[in-house]
Specification:
Number of domains: 1
CATH superfamily: SWIB/MDM2 domain
Mean pLDDT: 89
Shape: extended
Oligomer: single chain
CATH architecture: Orthogonal Bundle
Distance between the termini: 59 Å
Low-confidence stretches: none
Number of strands: 2
Order of helices and strands: HHHEHEH
Strand content: 5-15%
CATH topology: MDM2
Helix content: 40-55%
């Protein structure tokens, strides 16, 4: 009778965000008008963006995954009036060094 295979646990599995997401990034001048000019991790950039979006009621009322850009965000979004929340992260990453 063959021996049963046992499931191996992955060695070194990390908990929490990866080091790449925790590295402080410097926002561009355009993005700093929305979130501030100090360097911060990507996770913090996302939190500040969502705080700005909610404070200014920029989330689309009908389709909640869409963000309606005001003047400041339109500059960050490359001139687009509306972007999805998934596209937003891609567009914002261009403004981080």
């Amino acid at each position: 009778m063959p021996a049963k295979k046992t499931a191996k646990k992955k060695a070194g599995k990390r908990r929490g965000p990866s080091a790449a997401f925790m590295k402080p990034m410097q926002p561009s001048e355009t993005l700093s008008e929305v979130i501030g000019s100090r360097a911060m991790p990507r996770t913090e950039v996302t939190k500040k963006l969502w705080a700005y979006i909610k404070k200014n009621k920029l989330q689309d009322k009908n389709k909640r995954t869409m963000i309606n850009a005001d003047e400041k965000l339109r500059a960050v979004f490359g001139g687009k009036r509306q972007v999805s929340m998934f596209e937003m992260t891609k567009l914002v990453s261009k403004h981080l060094k």
